[in-house]
Amino acid sequence: ISTFCEEPRAAYNRVRLTSYFESRDPSALTMTSEFEENGTTAWYEDNNVDIHIGDKVVAIDTEAKTVTGQSGKVLDYDVCVMATGSFPFVPPIPGKQRPGVFVYRTIEDLENMLAYAKENNVKSAAVIGGGLLGLEAAKAAKDMGLTSHIIEFADILMCRQIDQGGHQALVGKIEELGLHVHCGARTEALVGTDGSTDAESMAPVAALKFSNEGWDDLPVEMVIVSCGIKPRDELARDCGTLAIGERGGIVVDDHLKTSAEGVYAVGEIALYNNFIYGLIAPGYVMADVAAKSAAKELGLKGAVHEEDVPTFTGADMSTKLKLLGCDVASFGVNQPRPDDEDVSYLTWNDPVSGVYRKLVLNKAGTKLRGGILVGDASDYETLHKLSVKTDEELQESPAMLLAPPTARGASASEETGVSDDPTAQICSCNDVTRGDITSTIQELGVDKATLGEVKKCSRAGTGCGGCEPQVKDILKQELEKLGGGLSNHLCEHFPYSRQELMALVRTEPDVTSVNSFEKILAKHGSGDGCEVCKPAVGSILASIVNEVILEGGREALQDTNDRSMANMQRGGSYSVVPRVPGGELLPEQLIALGDTAKKYNLYTKITGAQRVDLFGAAKHELPDIWEELGNAGFESGHAYGKALRTVKSCVGSTWCRYGVQDSVSFAVRVENRYKGVRSPHKMKSAVSGCVRECAEAQGKDFGMIATENGYNLYVGGNGGANPVHAELLASDIDEDTVIRYLDRYLMYYILTADKLERTAPWQRKLPSGKNGGGPIEHLKEVIIEDSLGICDELDRRMNHLVETYHDEWAEVVKNPELRAKFKQFANTEQNIAKDDMIEFVDMRGQQRPADWPKDGQPQTMWQAPQNDIFAKSEKSWVKVGDVKDFAANVGTPILVGDTQLAVFNNAQRDEWYCTQNMCPHKQAFVLSQGILGDASGTPKVACPLHKKQFALEDGAELGEGSLQILTFPVKLDSDSVLVELPAEPELDAILGTHGLRVEKSDCVDIAGDALKVPSRAKFENVMSEGQELTDNVALVANVTVAE
User: Where are any strands of DSSP class E within 522-618?
Assistant: First the structure.
């Protein structure tokens, strides 16, 4: 088998092209295995397939049975399969020739867009085309940091898949993401920077001009054209012996054969029954039919049996996608012809939740013919299967199928609607059936069948990702059949879920036997713990015991932000967010915030929750900053913790002429009651003074809306990536009753939710109430009627948390021992300024850190010239402090010369380690702030920024990564801690802080100053001659780094 490939790399998944921005790694999109430097992959050689990269076929001779590549290669063939696909259709709009106008088809298209945007400081882009690929392109533009406009000629988006109602729901979701939609747009010309609108000018694009009456020009600096596709049939046309359709495409029969002997066509080039199939699933069906038909034609014995040769009779164009985070599905006859009389409709339109569902039935309402689902397509498989069974009548009222599963009170498993039919298609992107996934799980077996492996081996869920919940459900079901199960354990160290571990702790008669991580681990777990279970147990302890999180060894349990009691930002600096109950501030406090920000040169911004955020503080500055803020009356805002963030409010009856209750005072009361309460995830709240809902209380974990008689209490909402509308728990209740119900609701959530689970998904998974009213009815029964008999416990536990509240930053400021934990380096009073580690740039008069380069670019994925770089160096034992300077089970930074190192006192193992403090991923000096633990017995640290894990013994990245950190031996001499290190100049040449500073400009050397690190070959040669590095600097100062 030989295959020609015009692009510079082998086959990749265009369906997931937008995800290229996440990694900038083509191998993340490969259809086979990881790309090699020449663009091919190992799969081709392993399967005896010759691939000609970058060599487009320019001629085919169907009589001589030869193909000719652009390189001049001529290959004979027995069978030829045309899979040339399509090219983007660009309408004849004047100005399409301008710089800044792109199509969206290949990785190179994306790279060219990125380069153009960077070189020309592009701020906004327009995508012409509102179909599937156009919306993906718009998302790509947004991911590039651009203001993104979608320009659609039709009156609705995705007009082939959805109708007006679906369009409105989809537009609502899209605009929530910050994209702008313009439908019914008649683009007349692409205007240049010189104002020209002709088809010759090469001035860069500057705007879109419309012929719509009253429409202004739309200023944009980039245009992406995504107006559909045209079959790439020029090769077939030049051939002269292949039948071509009137509007393009190579005519094929039921076996995908063309009019020429031995020539097949598949995919977007194949015209079957005068129709081009532009979806990926039909393409896979065509490939299967063509391959088996060709095998039969070639007479390959044993390859295919006569009865197994399938035919292509068209394809079901039903599809389910996760589009810009929104479910979009259509199936069966979803838009009947105007002359189709056997039709009736049922429509569900919930504009608040952004859910639209339309079922197309026969006129009698007894058969489901098709439908459109937007916003919630979790039961797509069930509905699709019913629409396929055209000869069977529905067994239940169609009205029962109309409502989304969540509105019917369905359980999480019922919502997914996974079919038991082995032939049911689960992944429409890759045409994977239930049977395919089941076979994969059985082949992998109980021990190896993880979600990741099942996706990798079956390819289900690797397209748009919308079917992943179904894949997970199938995995769970099949593992149970095999005697296994989909583990809900916290991690390898605890064979319990968070709910189960919380139950074990809270029901322990002797609370002193479970009041520390070490005691809980000894009683219910094993190993050292890790970055997953330590924060989870820390949260449990905070919810049950509620002691200062930095005392008693509890700092070792705290995740990235909690350990520093501030949010770690890009580059390793921190943000400071004081609590502002109800958004109410004194003028003196505003002045204090300004003075503090000015003194410490902090970037200042108003948050979306009525607070002030101060960015850019160094860790060692935090106690001083909080001392000044504390003197002004501020408390910790817990923006760093999984706890109550804010209770937002409008001004209510105190100022507003529409207000019916004092929403500010009530918001202050609520926030002061629940401040500091730790929970499985962050919590947000709001109080609105009237039904106008200016505080957006129904989009919060819990919210109150004032009425003439008190407040309506809503619970289980949230904004963010997956907005959820809160549900009404109680109406017209007074403030004391609100507090009583909230105490119970929040404590019930804290005791029973999974780790890192917001109230909305937790609430959705609760059982239905006795009257079938869904989880909200269950909550009413538990909280108001005390159906489980636990209200006394819920009240008691919440009162304990309220009574034991302490301002965490006030505790640090007044306690010298806690304050010392924020010292920058344990072994010196010297500090390194934050802008010596990452460049800060001006933004509208304030300073912010320079943008991180994308992974794979210079200043990312750092590697030493070689892992044993100091193997031949002369070393000495250097004292870096006393044992008391290094807290147990955490990392502590030290400074040697200009090099930052991290010393880890692993008291659980009675072992010490020392590594570089810089995480090589983004060159941030933060490893000492990571959580210690072990993976299958290997001691490790998890970087606090992106959770990359490194073995402490040899520095290797654990998992699938290939990064490496440098490690150094540690020993104790009485009470002294010593690290074996090379000479300081040698150490600084590789790990010096100033040499590794992240800058906004592209930097090709691992040292950004005058000191250049020699190439590996030169370094080994120099070291083998026994010369000191200090003598070598002059010799190698002008040598460019080769590796």
Answer: 567-568, 574-576, 603-606, 612-617
Question: What pLDDT, in 10s, does the model give residues 410-466?
Answer: 443 444 456 778 888 788 777 788 999 999 998 888 878 888 788 878 888 776 566
- Amino acid in position 81: V
The pLDDT of residue 554 is above 50: yes
Q: pLDDT by residue (tens digit) across 988-1015?
A: 999 999 999 988 744 333 333 323 333 3
Q: What is the pLDDT of residues 5-30, one digit of tens each?
A: 999 999 998 877 877 876 678 888 88
Handedness of CA 649, 652, 656, 658 (dihedral sign): positive
CA distance 529 to 912: 17
CA quadruple 291, 296, 299, 305: dihedral positive or negative? positive
Residues in the chain: 1043
Q: Between vectors from CA 603 to CA 597 and to CA 606, what angle results, nearest 5°?
A: 90
Helix/strand/coil for 533: helix
Residue holding tokens 């500010």?
664
H or E element in which residue 15 lies: none
CA proximity to 374, closest of 135, 169, 181, 160: 169
Q: Which residues pair with 973 in a beta bridge?
A: 976
The whole-number pLDDT of residue 845 equals: 92
- Lowest mean pLDDT of 17-26, 191-200, 944-953, name the range: 17-26
* β pairing state of 263-265 and 80-82: parallel
| Residue bearing tokens 């055209």 | 390
With contact defined as beta carbons under 8 Å apart, do 418 and 381 qualify? yes
Cα 401 to Cα 383: distance, rounded to the nearest angstrom:
8
- Exposed e or buried b per residue across 490-522, where buried means at least 16 C-beta atoms within 10 angstroms of its C-beta: bbbbbebbbbebbebbbebeeeeebbbbbebbe
**Helix (H), strand (E) counts: the chain:** 29, 50
Strands of 819-867 (E only): list them: 840-843, 846-849
Nearest-angstrom CA–CA distance, 378 and 163: 19
| Distance set, CA 615 to CA 568, 600, 605, 625 (Å) | 10, 10, 8, 12
